[in-house]
Amino acid sequence: MKSINILVFSIISFLFTTTVFAQDLSDQEIGFDEARVINSLREYGVTDPEGLTIEIERKREMFKVRYLEMKKKKQEILEKIELEQNTKKRLHRNVAVDIPQSEKDALLAIYNSTNGANWKNNKGWDFNKPVTSWNGGIGWYGVTVVNGHVVKLSLSRNSLSGILPPEIGQLKYLTFLDLERSGVSGSIPKEIGQLENLHFVDARYNGLTGSIPAEIGQLKKLSSIALGRNGLTGSIPVEFYNLTALSSLSLAYNKLSGTLLPDVNKLINLTHLDFENNDISGSIPLQIGELNKLQYLGLDMNKLTGSIPDEIYNLQSLTTLMLDYNGLDGTISSKINKLKNLRTLILYANKLTGSIPPEIGQLDNLVELQLGVNQLTGFIPKEIGLLKNIVRLYLDRNQLTGTIPKEIEMLTKLRFFGLDYNQLTGTLPPGLKDLTNLYNMDVSNNFLEGSVPDLRHINTLGIISNKFRFIDFASEFSLYKTKMSRYNFKYNSQKKTDTAKTTTARIGGSITLTMCEDGRFTPDDTFQWYKNNAIISGATSREYALTDLKNTDAGTYFCRSYHTTNPDMSPLILEREPIQLNVINCTPIVGVIKVVR
């Protein structure tokens, strides 16, 4: 996919709910590294400044979603663990609260190897005193002790510096390990496989390197592991597939390679699988279709090839399917309608062919559909209009033909709409003016023409390189100019008007050349004729008459039309197809010469 040169027009992926809109989450809080994302996007062919800006926003929103999802998952697991631990407390009220020396040694090793003296918060970490739970500013920061054992260690965002020591394996009763954005680096010690009671691990957004130790496969109680946004390399250990209690597995944004093994079907409790932005290759194993609890499948930005297996359509609990930026080929199966719970379907930037199956209209819960940057052909199915919950619809950069179905007017929740770089003809559905939630629309680089509906409620509108004329939106132009900047209303330039022709006339005769032969122009339009790419002085009318023709009048003529009522925005420039004028010495004879022998 690195050969794709993508100009993405305002793609903002919808995994998020209204909760995301309501929260102002900073890049630092969600762990969004813009520079790193830009580098990744460039590797996949997003190179132009505008495309990068827009795709960055899409990724930023995705980070928000994943941040909120992980936060929710973390809280759910923590509540479950605390419930179990509270039960144990009640059952062992008389057990003395103290930790074994081996566990205290482990904490000391962690403290020393990560520069504990300079942690953001190291309150209570006095190894001359008993280890007690952190509670309201009292005790050991980030430590929870239950029945004399360390069960929880939470040092996220605490400015650790250094590696995790092998002694971490001595915390035998640890159930919860949170090192998100803690600052740890180096390799993951294989001794982590000794934490037999571990339920939850979050070590995202750190500087971890090397391969993932196979010993993690020994953690039979592990229900969630998140190692994303590090520098981990190598393949996914086959031992991972032994973690049958695992419900969430996130390894996104690393440098992992290798393939997905058929053994993935052993992860029978998996609900969340996120391998985004790695170097995983090969095909999607058929066995992935056996994960009937799976709700989130993110394999985007890898090097996957082959077709989308039909078995994937057996995942009827699936709400999010993200396979974008790979090398997948084949068609989109009509079996897509089996994914009734699907809210997000992103197959963007692959090599998919064939038509868009009309069955896609049966996905009632779909909020986002991205099929852009593929090789899809045929018409846009009218069944698209049945997607009553759709907010983001991107079919851009394919080879779609025909007209925009009128049924689009039924998508009352539609907010982002991209059909640019196709071969669509006809007019824009007039009912688009009634889609009051529509915020961003791009239909550039098609063959659309005719009146542009009143879209003054839109923030960003792109109609570049179609067959529109200024007359098609003249009545709304002043409103567009007031509401949108020149960068948000993209209309210049358009495809050439009229049709190319060759005309032959005799010396001494006359001929009139015309632009906008269909009469569609405004009184404010100005014109300039050219001959052989040179301006013809004084030829500033829609029609250019040549009389008393001479041999020197022969040549290639075209006309440009301008509308200059918008000095603060680039004027709309139209150019007609060329007219090749041949001038001959006599009246041409038209007919058939019959030779009789």
From TrEMBL:
Listed GO biological process terms: defense response; response to other organism
Annotated coiled-coil segments of the chain: 67-94
CC annotations in GO: membrane
Compartments reported by the entry: Membrane
InterPro entries the UniProt entry points to: Ig-like_dom, Ig-like_dom_sf, Ig-like_fold, Leu-rich_rpt, Leu-rich_rpt_typical-subtyp, LRR_dom_sf, LRR_R13L4/SHOC2-like, LRRC69/RLP
Segments forming domain Ig-like: 494-570
Membrane topology: Single-pass membrane protein
Stated name of the protein: Ig-like domain-containing protein
Keywords: Coiled coil, Disulfide bond, Glycoprotein, Leucine-rich repeat, Membrane, Repeat, Signal, Transmembrane, Transmembrane helix
Secretion signal span: 1-22
Taxon lineage: Bacteria, Pseudomonadati, Bacteroidota, Flavobacteriia, Flavobacteriales
PROSITE patterns named among the record's database cross-references: IG_LIKE (PS50835)
Organism domain of life: Bacteria
Pfam family, one: LRR_14
